[in-house]
Design brief:
The complex is a heterodimer.
Chain A (H helix, E strand, L loop, with lengths): L3 H32 L4 H31 L10 H31 L7 H32 L4 H27 L1
Helix pairs in contact in A: 1-5, 2-3, 2-4, 2-5, 3-4, 4-5
Chain B lengths: L5 H33 L3 H31 L8 H28 L9 H29 L4 H28 L2
The chains are: A mainly alpha, B mainly alpha.
Amino acid sequence: MAEMGGMIRQSVTILVLCALADFLTGGVLEGMKAKFSLLPGLLVMLPPLVDLRGNIGSALGSRLGSALHLGTVKPRLAMTEALKVNILSSLILSVIASATIGLISWVLCLLMDLPGVSLACLLFIAVFSGVLSGVAITLLTVLISIASFRGGWDPDNVTGPVTTTLGDIVTVLSILFAVMIW
Amino acid sequence: MATYTVKRIVLESYFVLLIAAVLSLLAGFLLQENLERILRLVMLIALVPPINDMGGNIGCIVGARLATALHLGTIGPGRGRKHLRRNIWGSMISGILSFGVAGVVLILLKPLGFPSWVAPVFFLAGIFQTTIAVFVSVWLAFIAFREGLDPDNVVAPIITSVCDVSGVASLLLAVKMLGI
């Protein structure tokens, strides 16, 4: 447990870096999102999909932070049982939660009489981009939490903000890729 | 703290994530449609993503640190008050300082067309947003722990959704208070 000074120094550094990344990438991401307005159903599911990625990543980071402090996960790049369970859970969640969001968005489109996008299309885009960004962010989260712990930084101060900020970028790119394939 | 199992993490997280997704869908509908009407100042809309994200990030940090302390037992029912107080104050100071630095960045961006009221509004709204993020996260962490849920799975998803709404509210309040 870091002293208050260390806690503040670490959090402020991370929060400011993430805010700067936000300012810098905000405009570009908004521009990309504008491309999605061609598919109305996609626009509906974009905010929850982007949030989902950050949420799965920061929950994983939060769990790893606890596990590293407790010593149940060792700060080494070795596939221990606890680490495997955490990674596997995040990947499973990426698939089923993304699919659920695809389904809910489709139902919402039907209810609101938005011009039709097929269920298959929404499910494909949600799950494909979910798996793609899920793998990337899960690996990054594991690396960042172990690296920060080894570097003497409290992973609890680092992983949440960094994974949500990177998650925004990676998710929008994966969705764009999924749309191009479809 | 019980050891992690895939079943427990997936089940617990799935419902929390679903709640967060529904909140996000609702916020998307309600706010997106009305955002331009609610925030009649165009520049204010540009401040919505950063204030929402910073609030969510502060909440994630508080939640992650408290979850660790609850698991380690340094904070618990009737113990670790000093530790908790230090956590809350440290987070408040960190949040407000970060909004201060972000405000300075906005001042530096002034040549890019940001009017001069943007930085003070952002900073004042940031103080409100930080307060909400810190105290709601602490509350969520304790409730989750008491109910036998892992706060690591609960706080981050919920607080980011809460901050998406409170960010807009904080901006409106700041504009009103500063009379802009």
